[in-house]
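Data availability (excerpt). The following record was deposited with the supplementary files.
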Amino acid sequence: MGQRKRREMRNDFRTLFVVLARVLHFIAQEIENQLPKPSEITGAVTFTTSKGDTMGEITVNEGDAPISATVSYVHAETGEPAQAADTPVWSSADDSIASVEASGDGMSATVTPVSSGDAEGGTAVVISVVAHDAEGDEVRSEGTVTVRPDPNEVLIGEITFQSGGEPTTGGGDESSGDQPQVNPLR
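Predicted structure:
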């Protein structure tokens, strides 16, 4: 095969690759245009107590005073303050753990810790705020409230060992024979 023929084939392959790259680029753009656009705005929930503000999550005790909560929105791309197109709607995933009551404009709410539930260390509940951007896309902001048992109602127990009529809490020289052993498997 002559050099001229090889050069023509290389040019044909280059042309083919350029065309193929343009077709693939066009297909990628079409696929991208079909994907749902992210919301124009994003939101965050902030909880406020006498101790200060905390964003996104807070831990309180059962029976504590109600907590103030606010939602704020920013433009997703610029970070500048933004507003939802409608009134934000607040809800609690479990009103028996923490209830929520929104203000008239939906930009704030009162969250009331109700119960720690059955869990010993407390129970967490998600507080959701749903609004929509100018395009009608849902903007969901969430915060977590963990309600612990009332520390004044937590019971603490003590085990008392008794040997020979004298109460003891299990201390002393374990090898002496007259004191009970705390861990007889050692």
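Summary of structural features: The first strand starts at residue 41 and ends at 49.
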